[in-house]
Amino acid sequence: MSPLNRLGLESSAYLRSHARNPVGWYPWCASALEHARATDKPILLSIGYAACHWCHVMAHESFEDASTAALMDELFVNIKVDREERPDLDRLYQLAQQLLTGRSGGWPLTMFLLPENQRPFFGGTYFPPVARLGLPAFRDLLRQVAAYYRSHVGELRASAAQVVAALEDLNPGIGAKQALDAGPLQQARERLERRFDRASGGFGSAPKFPQPAGLARLLRDWYRSAATGAPDLQALFMAGLTLTRMAEGGLFD
Q: pTM of the predicted model, to two decimals?
């Protein structure tokens, strides 16, 4: 492996920040998936983004460690994904993680996938380098997952199929061809308003993270309606209050 791994030429700044990890990272691409099938190695999928604190912590503790990287490369095909570049993959595997573990998702998202079809069979979020806070050491987890895959692959395939069936129940019509209309954009607008915090701005409850895609959606809704007889002033208010509270709170990123 050269000093730069396969992420060195990616367009995502987050992926490029991992280009000098000793891990033989692939981006999500056909060659990575084909390599997993050819070698019959499960995929270790790590999803994060540039502003994620714990993503950087895990990168420093594990992905920059030569012995951990060697173990990852020995046992898995390792794929790094920027959630801001591939929100579709992030949403899919976040839901899968919640179904598999019964816990809320988050970042970094750490998922283990079957090599032949990328179906998830185990997952979690942050794992420390040594066991603590009820979490296993990352290297111990790697060995345990790889060993279980080798000895129980049929069981894992059945479990992964159940996860896929549950995801299809949550997303009826997934994969079916549908005519494009404004319905999904309207649903996104309504969901943002339901979760909007009218006192502190932002969406949902603490801890909150900046959500640039949601703010951009609201500003687009307002801009599109501004020249009509019914401008979406509520969308402008939600975006404006959120950005104001972020600035007042000292977040200047």
A: 0.71
